[in-house]
Each structure stands twice: as structure tokens, then as C-alpha cells.
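re: that complex we talked abt at group meeting.

here r the seqs, copy pasted straight from the sheet so there may be weird spacing, ignore it
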Amino acid sequence: MGIIFLLYSSSLKAQTFSASEYQIKAVFIYNFSHFVEWPASSFEKSYSPFVIGILGNNPFGPYLQEAIRNERIGSHIMEVRQFNNVREANNCHILYINLQDPEEIKQTLLAVSGRPILTVGDSPNFLRFGGLVRFFTEESKIRLEINNTVAKSRKLQISSKLLRVATVQ
Amino acid sequence: MQHNPTVFLIDDDTDDQEIFGLAIEKTNVKADCVYANDGIQALEKLNGDESFLPDYIFIDMNMPRMNGQQCLSEIKKIERLKDVPVFMYSTSADPECISENIQLGAEDFIVKPSSISELTIILKRILQEPLLAMMFLMLFLGFSPQRLQAQSELPPVNELKKLSMDELINIVVTSVSKTPENLTEVASAIQVITNNDIKRSAATRLPEALRLTPNLQVAQSGSHDWGISARGFNGAPVASSSLADKLLVMIDGRTVYTPLFGGVYWDVQNVMLEDVDRIEVVSGPGGTLWGSNAVNGVVNVITKSAKESQGLYLTGTIGNYIQDLVGIRYGGQIDSSLFYRLYGQRFDYGETQLPDGNDAGDAWSMTQGGFRVDFLPSSKNTFTLQGEVYGGEEDETFPTEINGQNLLSRWTHSFTETSALSVQAYFDRTKREISNNPFTDELTTADLDIQHQITIKSHHLLYGAGYRVQDDFTTSDDNRFTPAQRTLQQLSAFIQDQIEIVPDRVTVTLGSKFLNNDYTGFEIQPSLRAAWTPDKIHTLWGAVSRAVRTPSRFDVDLTSFQGIDRPDFRSEEVIAYEIGYRMRPFDRVSFSLATFYNQYDDLRSLNTTEGPDPTFYFANDLKANTYGFEISGNILVYEWWRLRGGFTYLIKDFTLKSDNVVDGGELIEGIDPKGQFILHSIIDLTKNFQFDVLARYIDNLPALPITQTPEVDSYITLNARLAYELNKVMFSIAGQNLLEKSNTEFGRLQIPRSVYAKIAIRI
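got the structure back, here u go
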């Protein structure tokens, strides 16, 4: 009796190492930059930055900045940019879409669909709307769902190491 | 690596900014300094860039455009900065002004010192280095951690970046859970043994894994027999088990103590340790949520879901005492929402020694297989079906055949984010057959539990009901139990309301469990718990609870008791008072202290009849008071070295309520060490080499003349493990009980030193 919820409610306070949701997500996004290969055409110049864009509110606090601080992808310095609308997002490499309205998400994904941008989000229908990577939570752990077919069509090569830990569609 | 703290100084005087920067440099704390020239500029920066989250803010009191105090109150309005300590910084200290600022939420007030070195000292104290964390725990000498609150309690992002993808997806996140954290756990003495803790130990079986938590007394009495208890009352060792009967043990939601004697047959409680997610150990009564028997503690073994145990895992062990262990697990996926795993394992253990050095004849073996299927059709529904089959043999002294099967299914459904229903049903059959002194016991259990949780404003309600029917059938040549067969029914219900009195600060939980059993009828087990979390570092909690141990067949049905004029056996009862404190002063250190005072009544006593030909029987003529404390800690000394461990101390004081109680008989109820100490050291020697040690000190145990159990001397023992891990393969050599050729822990048998080699392959 009484055990069922206890099995599912994690006793977090007692656990030694745990992290906040957006810390983990920030580190995942940082890792994506290493486990995904972008076409050379996505960089205007050899010294163009590798851009992680955020559309909508920034839920990461300082974590995403911390994760990429002093990091590079080859010759490209990494930077985080906050976008106010999707038109600004055309030249980023990873786009985290933090919008609430499903219709708006749909339109945003449509707007960037021609470009090699790794779109990342949390909303339930994110992949159905054409997004590439979705975070979801299972048993208090952050899990990934990836639409690899669409990723390939955008010329993004996702490493098997990343696909292995994700649910692949 | 600790992440570099960011310090934000708001000061209109550029000279002061420079001095401040120099002082920061001199602290040798690698901090990033950001400056603003006045309050307006500071607020523009803080409001304009949401990703800017300084770890400390310093504000000059006297500034143009907006003074320091106004600036402070504006900053305190920004939600994401509410936990960032703000220090007021001024040339003069007016007491009234200080208290006003503190009321506005300032952390402290600093008078601008006349020299850089003075300022350095002050800043150093504020920006303490993380390694002091270790010293702090080691010394624990009144050093105030107040200044260190700004240290986030989360691991720095830089540390997380070092994790592999597999590790990342297995990190438990703290803010994700929409359902409230269970206060029963927050306000209780809970310890968690993680999968990694087990992996980094020499444990080969579940009882050995339980040695890793400081709040359990785990004593091996024979090759397959263990006495395991919390807060004392580790009952006398008997054939195939011990009389420890105040611990509730559950494996994936299945209760495994036997109604035959209220204890656990540890020989048949086997899990594949690789697939254990965690073991939660609560010391103290878990009366409200858990069932009966949770008088002194609860052990909750939780295995991974099928989704978390995918792929092929092969393991083999060979050694002197654990002679062999082979295991195989395969986890697969049928479609995107349907996962399964299958496993099988077989092991042989050697024998222990009698006090004269001869073999005790208790070698044994066990073969077990099982499966688990998880179906996750949507985020609203999850289904689990899991089952096991096992069979084993134990040697000579008590030649025994053991076998069993169990099957469990569970459905959870969330109606909304704050309302969820869970239904669980299981079936369990277990049988043991001793052939030389013929005795068989066959127990069949069916159990159904339903519960619902719902959040309404500040109330988190959890309530449920359960029904359990157990059929226990014994046979023996000498008719040990009368009646030989019993069908026991238990109906239970519980309700718990967790109330947030002050959000994130004060929570109170009221609850009770109601139980109807065949022996004593209706039982009520209420509890009141409260937790106060003044900040992210400290939690102070207290609880008062009542719990009962309902009678077992051993208390009531022993044939030798029949015909004696004796009162009906009642439930044993405890009223427990607990006060605890949990602290996490730094990312790398957690510490907990639990103190308890327990008043037991109606404890089982061994009585004799009066007259010339006395016979023995059980009654409820013992009372006891116990008190003690449990300290535990967890320290990440370096990235490559982690220490965990703890100390427990227990005093028991028995009162005999009747002259008929056999003198010294109270020891049957609990043969416990006063103190015990464990220390688990986990070291990554290199990227591939691991070296792990578990040291344990256990105080002496008193002799129990009635059962010819000798005194056990205090002892120190050591387990160690050296492993080499390369990609998918791990080789290890490990030893248990390394300091002695053999060692007596409980009873009279000597447990041999064990050395083994192990290989594990994950594909």
C-alpha cells in the first residue's frame, strides 16, 4: 500500500547528484553541437560564429551561457543569441523554440524548414510540426526524441551516439 | 571544477570599482567581475539580459540617480534574482540603515574597508572556495555556513558537460516533477543507495548492497541468512533467517516480508543488481503511507524500467565464497512505446564455518529468471507488467528446496498535471521445503492497491485503499503450527494531506493509515510531520508517528503454545518522535542528522507458565524506550574521489511488564550494536581504473544464552574492489571481509573472507 506513488515520486532531496531541468537541457544543447554535423554552407565565413538561438523567453538562466563559454566548434566561436522573431533566426545553427501557442510553433518551424537548423523544443507536437529534437521528461529524467528523417533532409548529420540515447522517429 | 562565480558590483566611484576588482583578484577565487556605474544602469543590464545571473551582487549605498537602497528593492523584485545574495557596501555603517536594508532582503552590510587586504579578507569569506566544504564537514565545528548560501546547490554546468550522453539522460532533474515531492520522505530519515553506489562496491547480492547505507544494521548469520533492521530490534538469528520483524521490505512495490514470522527470507529476495535503479531506505516508522511492519523502517528496492535497461548485458563472476555467478539481460523495443527486458541469473555460494572451524554445510545455489514490459502509449498512461521465477537449493544442515513465482501489473493514469491514479495488482507464491527435519511452508499472496493523488491549492492529497489475501500453508512431522494452514485477509486505507503552510518554506503533513487484520482487527497508524526549509541549504524536520507490527503466525500459531491459558497476542506498538536536520552547504557536500526517541509497548515477550513443569509462550509483556541518532554524509572531495558514509548510535532500555517474562528473553527481540560506522570511498584512479573501498566498524553484540548465541566482538571489516572499465567491458577483482580469514557477524557462524573476479559486458 502506498508504495505505488513512492515508486514514482523520486526522493530527490536525498539523492546525491541531481541537477535542474534547464541545466541538463543546456548541456544537451551544448552537446548537440558536437554530435550533429552542419553543412559547411551554414557558415558564411570560416570565422563565423556557431549560433545557438533562443526564440521566446530564455528559460535557461545563465546555464546555456555557461555551457558554451569559451567553447568552439572548429574555427567557430559559440554564442547564444536571443531572437524576437523568426526572421532573425535564419542564420543560426541550433534554434531553441520556447513558444506556447502551438500555431505559432508550427509557423516558426515552417519558416525555418528550408534551412540546416537544428530546431529544439519541448511541446508535445514539436516533431509532428516538423521540429527535429524534442525534450521530454520521464521518471524525472530528461529524454530526447529526434526526427532523423527530417534532419537528413535538412543536411544535418546526427551522430549515432546521439541517436542511441534518443527515441528516433 | 567549480564554475567561476560572477560578481556584480554597482558603484558610481570608478576608483572603488578598481579596488574591488583588485581585492577579488587577491582572494584567489576565480570570479568574473561585472560593473555598473549606478542603479539605473544596473537595472537596465539585469532587466535587459535575462541570461545574466550573477552569483553575488554588491551595491554602493550612495549613488546618484538612484540610491543603493532603492536599487536593492528594485533588484529584489526580479524573480530570477530572488536567491542571489545582495551585499550593501558603504563608507559608514548606520545601524538603522543596516537593519532597513536587511529587511529589504540584503544579505549583509559591508563597511568599505580602508585597505585592499581588509576587503580581500571580507570577500574571501564571502566567495569561499568549495574545498572548504570538505573541511567543514570533517570538522563540523560551529563554522557558520551563512555566507555561503550563494553557492548554488546544483552541480556546475562545467561538471555536467563532462558526462556522456548515457549519463546525461540518467540524471534525475530536480525541478521537473509536477507532482509534489513526498514530504514523508523529505521529513524523514531517508537514505538512497543508487545504482552507481552498488556498482562501485563489492556487493554481489541485495543484502550486501544494503550494507552501503549507514542507517541499516545488516548482519550476516549464515551463507544465505541475514538479520537486517533499522534502529535496532534485529531479532535473534534462527534457521534460514532472523527474527527481525520491524522492517517493511518491498521490491518494485511487492511486499516481501512473510506473515509466518514477520521477517524476510533474504535467500529468495534476489534482483539483478545491474538493473536496480535505487534502493530507498527509511529508518523510523513509515506508518502513514506504508503498511504494517514499517515500525522501524522501510526498504524500497526499485528496479529500472524496461526502457532504461535496453541492450545486452552479460556478467560472470568466479571466486572462493561466491563460487560463480552468471547473468544475462536483454532489453529491447517492440515499437516506440513498448519496451521489454528479459533476464536470467544463476549463482552458487560456498559455506560458512562453525566456531570449531568445520564447515557449516550451508552452501547454496539459486537460479532465477524474469521479465518486465513497459507500455507507454501516451504521457497520460503507463502500464507495467513484470514477473519472476526462481528455484534454489540449500545444503546439508537444513537441506532446503526453495522456489517461487511472482507477477505484478501496474497502471498509472494522469487526469491532469495535478491529479493521478495508480492501480497495482500482484500475485506472489513462494515455497520452502526442508527435508531432514520435515517442514514446508507455502505462501500465496494476492494484493490489490489503488491510490489517487490530487493537488488542490496548497494541499497535496494522497489517499488509497488496498486489499491483500495470503494463504500460508505449513506442514511438518511435529505439527509446529496449529492450525497448519491460515488464510489471512488485510484491508487497508490511507489518507495523507501535505499542506504548504508557507510555500517552499514550511510544509506540514498529516496522515493516517487504517488497517483491518484477522488477528487484532482495526488498527490506526497516524503521523504528523513538518519540515522547515529556511533556504536551499538547510532542512529541519520533525515527526511524531504511531506504527504497529501486527501479529505473525509465529506469535500466535506455534503448536507448543496451544492449550496454555494466555491472552490473545496483540500488535506491537511504537510511538516515535523524530527530529532531523539535513544540510547541503555546498554542491559537493550533503549531510544529514536524524535523532529519534521511540516508545514501544506490547513488545513480544517470552513468558513461562508458573508451576513445576513450566512451558514457554509469547505474550506482549515488554516495553522499551530507545533513543539514538544517525549521521550520514556524502562528499565529492575531488572529481575523482567521492566519500559517503555515516555513523549510527542506539540505546535500548527494556521494561518487563510481568514476572512471567523469562529473564534475558528481551534479547531475542533485538541483538543490536550500540554503534556502527561505515565509510565508502569511490575513486577513479585513471579514466579506466576504479578503486573502491567499504570499511565498516560494528560494536559488539551481547550473548543470547537462551538460543546459545555467543557474544560477538566488535569488529572492523573491509571490502575492496579494483576495476578496469574499457568501453563496453569491465573487469574487476573484489574482496569482502578482507581483514580476517573469517569473521562472525551475527549468531555463531563464521563468514569467510571472499575474493572474486568479475567480468561484465554491455552491448
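couple things i noticed - The first strand of chain B starts at residue 6 and ends at 10. Residues 14-26 of chain B form the longest helix (13 residues).
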